[in-house]
Design brief:
Structural class: alpha+beta
Strand content: over 45%
Number of domains: 1
CATH superfamily: Lipoprotein localisation LolA/LolB/LppX
Largest sheet: 13 strands, antiparallel
Distance between the termini: 56 Å
CATH class: Mainly Beta
Number of strands: 15
Length: 278
């Protein structure tokens, strides 16, 4: 063996030892310990438990798949989550306003023509979509803790590496078919990546601090869809937030299934919290 082989061999051994230590650390941590570290990174129990609602405002960059190929699309987006199971997502383009709402056990979607307020259609969403929206609402308001109270459970799946960072993989299982696999930084507890059971990948970047809690400034979701030509392609969607507020009080009527009369302007929430500070 040449003299130059020894440093290379040493580096290999160091890497192997480091990976072994990371794997051991991953096995040693319980689900409760991992969740506690992740919540501490976000802001701690007191700040997280105080949150009753979250209101995001920003922009969404996506693609529209046409027969001629994908075309870039940009929307204004507003997302509201309110405990226990209320959600409203409003996506506005130059031509349409698309709203998706959850009112506990009922979910709906309304698509409205921007130029003609009397032209709109309403879709009541199926039970499986209601369940997924409920799980999504829980995930955005409970910050990893207490899934057992809604009939789910957590499983530690073992060590992983995300972008060169040692991580631990944890499955948040709401029920069969509704699973969020989350990868946490072993050292800090920071969420590095989320995978859904449908094969989607969600990555958070940047931060906006609100009421002592870290929220992401940008969320990128990559899912696989079938385009008009029948080809399975990746569909990236990037949402960037310019304002986040917490603990606004939204009326129940905001989330209820719309009536068949023309839609009204959304009500102004009461008791707004201070605007986000970067």
């Amino acid at each position: 063996m040449s003299q130059t082989s020894f440093p290379a061999l040493t580096r290999v051994l160091v890497v192997a030892v480091a990976l072994g230590a990371a794997a051991a650390a991953g096995r040693a941590q319980t689900a409760a310990q991992i969740i506690a570290k992740a919540r501490s990174y976000l802001g701690g129990d007191a700040a997280l438990d105080a949150i009753r609602s979250v209101h995001f405002v920003g922009t969404m960059e996506a693609q529209e798949f046409t027969a001629d190929g994908p075309k870039p699309a940009r929307y204004r987006i507003e997302i509201i989550f309110q405990k226990p199971y209320e959600q409203l997502i409003t996506k506005t383009s130059a031509t349409t306003i698309e709203s998706t709402g959850l009112d506990d056990l009922e979910a709906w979607q309304r698509i409205q023509d921007v130029t003609d307020r009397s032209s709109w259609r309403l879709i009541l969403l199926a039970t499986d979509l209601v369940k997924k929206l409920r799980a999504n609402t829980w995930e955005n308001l409970n910050f990893f803790q207490g899934i057992e109270q809604r009939g789910g459970h957590v499983e530690v799946l073992g060590p992983a590496t995300i972008d060169g960072v040692p991580a631990i993989k944890v499955a948040f299982i709401h029920e069969p078919g509704i699973v969020f696999n989350r990868f946490f930084d072993l050292a800090s507890g920071k969420l590095l990546l989320t995978e859904t059971d449908q094969g989607g990948r969600i990555k958070e970047e940047g931060q906006i601090m609100v009421a002592g809690v870290r929220f992401p400034q940008k969320v990128t979701t990559i899912s696989k869809i079938t385009d008009p030509k029948g080809k399975v392609v990746e569909n990236p969607v990037v949402v960037s937030f310019d304002r986040i507020t917490v603990n606004e009080v939204f009326p129940e009527s905001l989330f209820e299934v719309p009536t068949l009369s023309p839609p009204q302007e959304p009500p102004v929430p009461a008791a707004p919290a201070p605007a986000a500070t970067h």
